[in-house]
User: Fold these one by one.
Assistant:
Number 1:
Amino acid sequence: MTQIPVKSGMPLLGNVIPFVRDLLHYPIQLYHELGPVYRMAIPTYNPVFVFDGDALRDIFEKQHRWFKKSPDYTTLKITLGNGLLTNDGPTWKPMRQLIQPVVFDLGIQTFIRITTDHITRWTDSMPLEGTIDLHPSIKRLTLSIATEAFFGSSVDQMGINMPQLVDSLNQLGAAKMRFPRHLIPYWVPTPLHIKLRSIIRKMDGEIDRHLANPAPEPGSLLDVFLNHPGLSNREKRDELITFLIAGYETTANAIMCVLALLANHPTIQAQLRDEINAHGLDPATFKSWRHQLPLLFAVIQEALRLYPPAWMMGRQATADLGIGRYDIPKGSNVIVDVYALHRIPDYWSDPNDFKPERFMTPLADKMMYLPFGGGPRVCIGQQMALIELATIIHAVVRQFDIFPAQSTIRPAPMVTLTPGRPLSITLVRR
Ligand code: HEM
């Protein structure tokens, strides 16, 4: 077994300062210095960063049952409760088995219809030529799709300003995750905790209103939950809020990145338009979309490589384990830094360049590409997200030429990786 190298730092503080100063690039710098698996000295935490395919296979697949989610998810738990994303207990598996068929099969045609309706309204509302501020526009679009798919009602019928609320939750959540704030227990009434509580109360009020709905839209997640006799109101609340938060912002960030990248790469945009003009998206054959439109999916995959919305995952070892050729003791916190993993130069040539063609052939090691995680805890919404991305990008590229405005992506590591502000493109109707 190979000894895990350690990046030691200042007394008491360890590497907190360089890490917090540059969350995205410092881990890549240390990869060059220390290799594919290393430990970073961070007080009370000392995470092991893993960029090794075999070790990742052990974490997500072969030995996944010996890992639980790391303490990083404690902050998320404040909002999401015990929903699928944060649930580590015995109820995770039955809940996943209950929800998976809805997300994968039953609801998928409804979801495609909802997405198509919303993007049609969005494109119809665009002027012949105009510059679009992507953040508000795309977030509203994906939130409208999510609220209709999950709650069966339009975002305008929500009793609260949902986009603003979820944005605040993301910002406050990111602040709470930063050292040393994550060490302060949630019951301490700091200004941050008071704000978080107030937002969560408003969200809960809205969810409760939906749970009281006597006639939910057939096929919506709400419908499935309300008609399931075995679920408590708390469980329904936690799953609905998890789906809303996990599903809407991640997808919005990915769509924004694809549009900005296409604006900056006119040749790829033109090639993609040729492919799109030759192939429509027939809902009945959604399982073949990837084969019918390989460049569309390669563009999406490449955007998710460069700017993975779920940019970091954490696990904690519940026993002494071997991962790849490394030993880690029980209690070790493992960080899978997806942003850095996707830019490891030994695996990705020209890692910072937008080159969709790298996804036109199978990857040498699928563990080096984890935008949706892996193993049994892989993103349950992966198929929905790809369908939504494909439908939206297909519609926009078919109807508009996309030009750069303020289209440089400056990724900001919040709870999700957001493409940063300002971000806008110019659309000219074809
Ligand atoms: C581009 C969009 C998306 C990305 C990049 C993404 C990414 C991820 C990742 C990386 C995980 C694994 C987290 C971990 O292992 O710790 C995950 C889990 C999850 N995602 Fe997504 N996601 C996306 C869209 C969605 C959508 C649309 C939904 C809802 C329909 C969703 C719901 C969930 C849920 C419930 C989990 C927890 C699954 C479990 O542990 O059983 N996600 N997602």
Number 2:
Amino acid sequence: MPDEEIRPDPVEMNRSMLKNYDMPGKRTVLICPECGGPLWEIRRHNLISFQCHVGHTLSLESFLEEQAEEIELSLWKTLRTLKDRAEIFRQIAAERSQQDDSVAAQQLEMQAENALRRAELLRHALQVGELKPDPESLAPDQTPDLD
Ligand SMILES: [Zn+2]
């Protein structure tokens, strides 16, 4: 076997290097919004921040903001998809109706209604919105109590 030497896969090598890389703080289940890597929680003087392997750093406040934006974006995206879905069901229902297949048409209309009902629930969720956290509650007072 000429030239069949086993070389380490650079990707694997990087992965194990990253695995062994000594990150400060405690690993979380959270994902870095910038690169999708895992986040470590870092606490300094009561302040919580997050950092990933490649060095993206976020304060707790900015992490929560990113998360809120992501939630809103995905809700809008799902709402739009449900409306598209209802439209497709309606179109096919109309075709079935013209072909005198009223049973299929009725079932498809029900599917359309179902998609629209779910879309309305999402619209309601988007209208309710979310309360912004008070920055004070995220970064508690660090001055020692002198009482
Ligand atoms: Zn990152």
